[in-house]
Amino acid sequence: MNQLTFKPNANKQENEEMRKAFTKRLSEKLREIRKNKGLKQEELSELAGLDESYVGHLERGVYSPTAFVMWKISQALNVPVSELLDF
């Protein structure tokens, strides 16, 4: 995947585009890791203590997770948080 480009002086529209691109990459990475671990969304949600529909929303890029949710997911997947952000 191409690296995301940070624009420190971005206007409102550019910030929204960066946020959407970041969320899309994060959702793709989360799905990839979950599938590589052989887990279904339901199993991940149980392991992470999250609602199954919330995990689905995260994987579709509908929601952006908080740092705490990312930590819970990383613990459930047995990977460092940094791996979720390695895209």
Task: List the SSEs and their pairings.
Layout: H1 12-36, H2 41-48, H3 52-59, H4 67-77, H5 81-84
What characteristics describe this protein?
87 residues; mainly alpha; 5 helices
Description:
- This protein has 87 residues and is mainly α.
- 64% of the residues lie in helices and 0% in strands.
- It contains 5 helices and no strands.
- It has helices at residues 12-36, 41-48, 52-59, 67-77, 81-84.
- The longest helix is centred in the first third of the chain and has 25 residues, at 12-36.
- The protein starts with 11 loop residues before the first helix and ends with a helix.
- The model has no long low-confidence stretch (mean pLDDT 94).
Secondary structure tally, helices? 5
The biggest sheet amounts to: none
The quaternary organization reads as single chain
Unreliable sequence segments: none
Question: In percent terms, what proportion of residues is strand?
Answer: under 5%
Mean pLDDT: 94
First-to-last CA distance: 7 Å
Task: Give a quick precis of the structure.
The protein is mainly alpha-helical and 87 residues long. The chain is built from five helices and no strands.
